[in-house]
Amino acid sequence: MTETRLLTDHQEIRDWAAARSGIPAIRDAEELIGSDEPVISIQFGQHAYEDDDHQGADRPDDFGKPRLVEWDEWFALFDQEGLGLVVAEDVPGQRDEFHEIIRR
Prior knowledge:
Largest sheet: 3 strands, antiparallel
Distance between the termini: 22 Å
Order of helices and strands: EHEEEHEE
Helix content: 10-25%
Shape: globular
Strand content: 25-35%
Structural class: alpha+beta
Radius of gyration: 15 Å
């Protein structure tokens, strides 16, 4: 089993994400079914920029895709909701993208 650690410090989270080319994102509540709250995430690599969900000409290009945001906006929700970021312990020579956003 992989060892994990909980990150709550903003700079530590930014550094962890930057080392993996992670970008903060928010999926707004109006795009979610059964939720009144926006959901934060960290997007990695080309998945943050490419939309391969072409499900009809009448769908907006960004439908269902997280909105890339600045860290300040992301951390506002992170702190407001009392969240933490669980990540795998760093292993020399590896950049594991495993993460999970949880309530503290």
